[in-house]
Amino acid sequence: MLKLTPVERSALRSEAHALNPIVLIGEAGLTPAVLKEIDAGLDAHGLIKVRVFGDDRDARITMYDTICENLKAAPVQHIGKLLVIYRPQKTAEAAKVRSEKKGRGMREVTIVKPSASGTKRPSVTKVMLKGNERVTEGGTIKRAKPRQTSAKKSALGSK
After folding, report:
1. Phi, psi at residue 44, to the nearest 5°?
2. Strands (E), the chain
3. Residues 6+ apart with CB under 8 A from 125
4. For the chain, which residues make up each domain, given as ranges?
5. Which fold has domain 6-86?
6. Mean pLDDT: which of 56-65, 110-119, 144-153 is highest?
7. Residues 31-55: pLDDT tens digits?
8. Are β-strands 47-52 and 23-25 bridged in parallel, bridged antiparallel, or unpaired?
9. Residue 144: CB partners within 8 Å, gap ≥ 6?
10. Average pLDDT of 22-28?
11. Residues 6+ apart with CB under 8 A from 19
């Protein structure tokens, strides 16, 4: 089981506040299929919430401990029927390499436009951009145009 400092635990609790449970444990309890799904969720997200249906608090605590021991994860928080679990992502380096490549895949961009009068709050919008799109200074989205090639270079390259 992974150990966290109180400061790390507090930061993860605040980060998990906005999350929705991605795994629901029902009447059958903690089956191998449920453990596999929790493992996949931890690989994909790192920090997840699990909802346990059932009124037995002791059973929830044993499930929580079992999950953390079997999956080498850290218990973050147990409130009522919600369990918050954290495990550092294995593919963090791979994700970092993917994000460094330019022009590939979708990315989220926040656009902040000031109000026309200057006295009101600026408008903030989050937009998903494709690989060939960019945001101008005015906050509009433009697609990249295909690059022009000279006739000389294309003629030299074909020889």
Report:
1. -80, -40
2. 23-25, 47-52, 74-79, 82-86, 107-113, 123-129, 133-135, 141-143
3. 110, 111, 113
4. 6-86, 102-137
5. Translation Initiation Factor IF3 (3.30.110)
6. 56-65
7. 999 999 999 999 888 999 999 998 9
8. parallel
9. 132, 133, 134
10. 92
11. 47, 48, 49, 84
